Amino acid sequence: MHLIVTCCNRSSARAGRFTRHAVVAAALACVSLATPASAFASLGGTPESVDADRLRSQGSLVAIVRTEAFTRHELRTATGTTIREYVSPGGTVFAVTWQGPWLPDLRQVLGSYFDEYERAVRTRTRRTRGVVQIAEPNFVVVTSGHQRSFSGRAFVPSLAPAGVRAEALR
Amino acid sequence: MMLRAFIAAALFAQAVTPRCDASNTASTNFQDIVVNAGPANNYINGAFTTVTVCVPGQSTCQTIDGVLVDTGSTGVRILANRLAGLALSPQTDASGGTMAECAQFADGFTWGPVVTADVRLGGEQASGIAIQSIGASAFSVPADCANTGTEEDTLTALGANGVLGVGPFAEDCGPACTFAGASNPGIYYTCRSGICTATTQALARQVQHPVRKFATDNNGVSIQLPSIAAGGAATVSGMIRFGIGTQGNNGLGSATVLTLDPAGNFTTIYAGQSYGSSYIDSGSNGIFFLDAATTSLPMCRVNTDFYCPLVPQTFAATNQGINGATSPVTFTVVSVDTLSNTINASSGVAGPNPGSFDWGLAFFYGRTVFTAIEGQSTPGGTGPYFAY
Questions:
Q1: What is the ipTM of this complex?
Q2: Does the pTM exceed 0.80?
Q3: For residue B145, which of B171, B180, B111 has the smallest C-alpha distance?
Q4: DSSP string of B182-194?
């Protein structure tokens, strides 16, 4: 599966933010060659979507760590934020964490859950600031930090391998 | 009341009298803050104050209340409709594009043009600085910006008429925004015909820490709130002072100076573990720390951002600066769901924050908390640091 990581070379990583649409278009073409059904989303998606994240953030894959319960793909975006994506043995991204000076593209890393996240943020009972904790029945996300230092974690319990808790993911 | 009348008179005198030599005329270096439900009537533990924004060099001003005091960000941001009637010039770039900003916060973003204004706080003024006009309708939110979270460009969404960012950084973005290429985080945009694209922004043109641009008292701020009863309070009055050790009323005293890493963080030690991305943020409602599994605190059912212990739980931790200085803290967590809606201030508000401690406004009650600006010298050393 991880061969896909090498499909597009990393020369695009320095191509410049301001031509990103062209870079992403090229990246999409490339990914789709390798994976016809490539999902351009991360949480709830396939391992291929991890690579879509890398390309969209013009980052690099810095580590793949395998445990008995899951495989962790660690990306570093060009802006210096670390994104870790947790893939179940069944091949689904069940959790994503991020930490760094700038927020990641949350629509990209949360995928189909982004709209649910945004709706939940807007409908909280009392105004909170600084930290947001969303606990939907099938989707848990916490984001925190301040200017120049952000972190967060999104977790889909129903997709997680048995025995893996959100708290164990960093 | 007498004191307030005196302060009002002093402020008025400051506003209309041409400034004398700053070396022998002390400025009024403080103003009131208040913890209440805020202008949107939906806040708990929000500290609000008043900011006066003026057309540069003129006496045409707008005074905006309900502005959140935030040590977790840098710069003045005001809802565009609160600036209506003030002819503030938008900042433009070399090619004539209008500059706008997507300012990132943990819970969302503010979007709007960068404008140039004089900002008055207490008796002091930051002249001709860049501020953000939030949600000005001429510019629609670019997709890159919208994808970072939830838009906070209305009173309801922001919960405030603006944000007074008085954190440890001199500018909101810093060096990262000055570089072209993929490393640029895409905070500043240039707009033409309603289309905005990310661009670079020099430090001096970024949204500035207003206090750093004062003529005096420009090395930091302190925020003082009184202790409050365990059951909380509807309203709490406090003070923000400008400058650290620059006048008789803003000395560090016995406060411990905790210097910060380049990200603006120090370390909190709890139960033998060190959490290195910890910080003090008056713009956070509560003390957000660790998670339910680590703290054994249940989450609230209604206010799902917060912890809700069945009975109040007390915790002890130690904050440690990059300089090695340490300062112990104890705090008690209460159930936010059981706080009445008339309670807008409580030292027991807390919630999760995996892997770190965010010492939010709940931490400020009964303390004076100093925030020194990066690169500025103070009697406690050069900023950035927090001290309390």
A1: 0.90
A2: yes
A3: B111
A4: TT----EEEEETT
